[in-house]
Amino acid sequence: MAGRFAQRPVPARAGTVPRQSTAESRRWTPPGPLDLRLVLGPLRRGPADPTYRATPDGSFWRAGRTPSGPGTLRVALRSGTVHADAWGPGAGWLLGQLPGLLGESDEPEAFVPRHRLVAATHRRRPGLRLTRTGLVLESLIPSVLEQKVTTDEAYRAWRLLIRKYGEPAPGPVPEHMYVMPEPRTWRMIPSWEWHRAGVDDKRASTVLRAVRVAPRLEETAAMEPEQARQRLELIPGIGPWTSAETVQRSHGAPDAVTVGDLHLPGIVGYALAGERDSDDARMLELLEPYRGQRHRAARVILLSGHTPPRRTPKMPRTDIGSL
């Protein structure tokens, strides 16, 4: 696959770490409007995610562990054409997956707004497409870390673990970019390092159970989203919330609506019915007209910014280091 793409030297820029000077490149024309920030944004786990970076020149960088090995991808949209460069053993795989990553297999035209707010937001965001990474563990593990804690806590845990146990991303990348550890490395992380990262035993054990069967989980990238979710949920500690958060990214699943979320039911209820205290059942009832596209509908609602006024305290931070 790598032979399909041109190789050319890419000079290191100021503020980057030159680890590999030769890039494989690809140009691709999307089938319609494309907003890279909206499409790739769900892959970013916090503002300091070591595997993701957006730079002032309009480029988006992501470092990933592919079936061919670690790789770094840089994409930018110029005059309607995607310019992509990749480095490392996984470069060819990343470029081969580029159209899927940017939503080529997505079908936004299948989405029919049923509410005025949704229709207005949908018109303002024509470049929204659902990403499909084709990689399961890189979405599953941070989703497990996000279980039952604040996003700040989860992002901190992901950042600390990746920086300590990952490997430097190949290529002339922005500083402090890393590829997440391979499954064997995850299994070797000692218990006290999980503790220092703020990860309790339950979430750490779930990650360890998942990486022990990593090949079986990565196989689900070729399955339909519902089949993939069923296999993921065979692992103790992985339920509907985590499986949905995973396949939304790995599979570009348009109907994998997240249930069990602390905030989403209230946001959907407020946006679609003016209700402040909706639960999962009510959220699913309100999203029923969008069946087949419920995840996309939820994303459009979130992009509308139409959220209920906060009346309750935020979820308290949990400092397990003090326990």
How would you concisely characterize the structure shown here?
It comes from Streptomyces solicavernae. This protein has 323 residues and is an alpha+beta fold.
How would you describe this structure to a colleague?
This protein has 323 residues and is of the alpha+beta class. The chain has 15 helices and 10 strands. The chain has helices spanning 36-40, 91-96, 98-101, 116-124, 137-145, 151-165, 183-188, 191-196, 201-212, 214-218, 225-232, 240-250, 264-273, 280-287, 294-304, and strands at residues 6-9, 16-18, 22-28, 52-54, 60-66, 69-78, 81-87, 167-168, 172-174, 178-179. The strands form 3 sheets. A 6-stranded antiparallel sheet has the order 1-3-7-6-5-4. The protein has a two-stranded antiparallel ribbon with strand order 2-9. Strand 4 (52-54) and strand 5 form a beta hairpin. Helix 4 packs across helix 15 (294-304), helix 5 runs antiparallel to helix 12 (240-250) and helix 11 (225-232) packs across helix 12 (240-250). The relative contact order is 0.14.
Termini Cα gap: 51 Å
User: Could you estimate the helical fraction of the residues in percent?
Assistant: 25-40%
Strand order of the largest sheet: 1-3-7-6-5-4
Shape: globular
Largest sheet: 6 strands, antiparallel
Structural class, please?
alpha+beta
User: Radius of gyration in whole Å, from Cα?
Assistant: 20 Å
The helix/strand series, from N terminus to C terminus, equals: EEEHEEEEHHHHHEEEHHHHHHHHH
Poorly predicted sequence stretches spanning 5 or more consecutive residues: 7-18
Q: How much strand content do the residues show?
A: 5-15%
How many strands?
10
Average residue-wise pLDDT: 92
What is the overall number of helices?
15
